[in-house]
Amino acid sequence: MIFLKTEDEIELLRQSNLLVAKTLAEVAKLVKPGVTTGELDRVAEEFIRDHGAIPTFKGFPNQFGDPFPASLCTSVNDQVVHGIPSDKIVLKEGDIVSVDCGTYMNGFCGDSAYTFCIGEVSEEVRRLLKTTKESLYLGIENAIQGKRLGDISHAIQQHCESNGYGVVREFVGHGIGKEMHEDPQVPNYGRRGYGTLLKKGLCIAIEPMITMGTRQISMENDDWTVRTRDRKYAAHFEHTVAVQPGKADILSSFKFIEEVLGDKAI
């Protein structure tokens, strides 16, 4: 069932999403060679809890009922999504890491992700990240009242595939509100003019997951971490938005991250 949000509910969603944005900015201050993903997770959890919120990912069950053990998903290089932070995973020069973060505050959820470069990365990898981020905003341009869900999906797919990248199909964006995952699902592939009619107050997390090679993926033995099957890099960017007439309202933000990164931002 799809729940349309009131203006008051959208403002509560915005508060949770801006906390995610500020948490990712705290992570941005730390991402450099030699740092572990476990360190990133501890800083993020402390920041979230210090601001009166709960990290929604921690304890969230997978399809087997196993709880996710951390507050962030940190997916390095060929990991697409749901990488588990660890003190054994040390970030190296030339790596990339997708950091996905969720919060629960005042009864509503926040969800956003950003892919960071560790030190200097190749131009080929930067191009993957830039294209993925561009596709997110092209999708958001179509998240307006009167359009269809497929318009968002098509815009993302067309931009990424026309640049030679793979679009992951097994994992998708989603509705968001009092629950982290609500209807509808928001695929990153689809046909223009098809799918659910977008109405004012629909709140969705749009999150392209794009690969440098083929779109085929595999699940690691931990039943969480998703990798590209060809072991080529993958990128992931995510915003939570509210559908409105004329222009989507982006409830999350990359502004705080980009203030930290300066000219190193994608």
Shape: globular
Helix-residue proportion:
25-40%
Identify low-pLDDT runs: none
Name the CATH class: Alpha Beta
List the helices and strands in order.
Answer: HHEEEEEHHEEEEEEEEEEH
Provide the CATH superfamily. Creatinase/methionine aminopeptidase superfamily
- The number of domains is 1
Spatial separation of the terminal alpha carbons: 36 Å
- Radius of gyration equals 17 Å
Strand content: 15-25%
Architecture (CATH level 2) name: Alpha-Beta Complex
Counting helices, strands and paired strands, the structural category is alpha+beta
Total strands: 15
Q: Please summarize the sheet with the most strands.
A: 5 strands, antiparallel
Strand order of the largest sheet: 8-7-9-14-15
Say what the CATH topology is: Creatine Amidinohydrolase
How many helix segments?
A: 5
Average residue pLDDT: 98
Provide structural commentary.
With 266 residues, the chain is of the alpha+beta class. The protein has a single domain (7-264), classed as Creatine Amidinohydrolase (Alpha-Beta Complex). 29% of the residues lie in helices and 23% in strands. It is built from five helices and 15 strands. It has helices spanning 7-28, 37-50, 123-141, 149-162, 255-261, and strands at 54-55, 72-76, 79-81, 96-105, 108-117, 166-167, 173-175, 182-186, 203-206, 209-211, 217-219, 226-228, 234-236, 239-242, 249-250. It has a five-stranded antiparallel beta sheet. Helix 1 (7-28) crosses helix 2 (37-50) and helix 1 (7-28) runs parallel beside helix 5 (255-261). It is globular, with a radius of gyration of 17 Å. The termini are far apart. The model has no long low-confidence stretch (mean pLDDT 98).
